[in-house]
Amino acid sequence: MNLHAVGEKVDGAGLVRWWLAVLSILLIVGSAHGGTPVFSDVTVESGIDFVHSNGATGQKYVIETVGPGAAFLDFDADGDLDIYLLNGAPTGVATEPAAATVNRLYRNDPGGMFADVTAASGLDDSGYGMGSCAADADNDGDLDVYVTNFGPNRYYQNEMAEQRFDDRTTAAAVTDSAFSTSCAFADVDADGWVDLYVANYHDFSYTNHKLCAEGGSGLQLYCGPESFDGVRDHLFRNIGDGRFRDETEDRGLLNSAGKELGVVFGDLDLDGDVDLYLANDKTLNFLYVNDGTGHFTESGLLAGAAYNEDGDVEAGMGVHLADYDGDLLPDLLVTNFQWETNTLYRNVGGATFLDETFNAGFGKSSIPFLSWGTRLFDVDNDGDRDAFIASGHLESDVEIYENTTYAQRNQLFLNDGAGRFEEFIPIKGTALDDRQVSRGAAFGDYDDDGDIDILVANVSDRPQLLRNDTVGAGHWLRLQLEGTISNRSAIGARVTLKAGSHTSTAEVTTGGSYLSQSDLRLHFGLASAIIVDSLHVVWPNGGVQILTDIAVDQQRVVREEGR
Q1: Residue 426 pLDDT greater than 90, yes or no
Q2: Separation of alpha carbons 264 and 182, rounded Å
Q3: How confident is the model at residue 93 (pLDDT cuts 50, 70, 90)?
Q4: What is the pTM of this model?
């Protein structure tokens, strides 16, 4: 359509009419999805001045390529999402961490602004930061934080009355000095206390550092995971008195064959307990099925979720668990290396999966990208889950020897409502078109306007706070679940929502994405529904609670009945 003939003179009123016409077309095009996705990069104007450092000096230490992650969490329990950003540190045997490379905590203040409260918070860890996860581990009403590092990890107990976090790593017995990546809290034995899983990558150290050469050019590259041995992960069971116990082996989780980067808990077989999925780098992915008592059996190969449909291992990076096709079964999306697909495993029941990557429309579009953080979420509130994927290469000089780039565009895929995705191609110069070297991504409604915003962590650069400004989005409902008999964060609770002919389900989880922590509140897009007929809540302890006739476009706190 010729909205504006070439060379035609347009006055002010004409220009307004021209933009209105453009907007109307965009709304028509986007109507199948509920609205045309629009994101604005508001990082700088929001007061976030953090710049990540990976400490690189040209030595090609593997750790320089892995982080960082990011977190959305309400650390002060004031009802809005704050931001925690992981930082690197100087690299090499003889270096000491510098104050300039600490992790940073930003408090969400009125007016869309964030204030740096790191110094007073106690969360100013100066280790070589990778990721974090958060939950109310002591059931006292505030979020505690575990930080994964290359080197000693840190566990911070939130002392909200004192407005600071205390380092309780040693006292809580959750020390881990390996090359840790992602972590997640979940109540594996349904005793009312969240346990902690820490994923470790491999045995790289400064003393076994090596260089790998690119065959054609002779360039020195970062070595891949094949050059190192895997190391064991850790399951720390919460014993309820402020301490944890390492029960990795007792729970059937002792396995050093993997090289874990992504971790997510969820009830994959819908039998009332949390199972565990691990995305591994160039080894088969693991799926540990919980027997109901907190003991696990590795079943990834039998479940069809260890390899892709061709029987190949992939470079598993990030992972997310959610129902993408509306059958009320939790599916898995795993991000992988460039020239591999981002692999979508559809749950067909009983924690059995089929690789639906190409059938669902992910295959061809994902191959040119090296992908990391991810989530299946409803970007436009039309009632189905779309997908965001953060991308960026490892090698800053990759363009010399390969037809790709170091900085890459992140990807957004829109769900057509039937479980098939189409990549949304952003307009040149907009926030989604920006090229970065991205890693972790966190998701949540930080401005409380009813849609999901995105926080992307970038290597040796500022993060991106992407505010969701989608026009024409549908109605929504956000739930904050609070356990009383179950764990206070309600991690593992599952909600099934019915609104007219629409049914959707979601589970409260930590971990997922890549090295990152997202909002613990559950968000449901409702399209045109103006009332939620029912909410069916299954709490982690097995209790069931039903609510009816819920108004839309609001946040609702749901407290567990029984205490």
Answers
A1: yes
A2: 9
A3: low
A4: 0.93
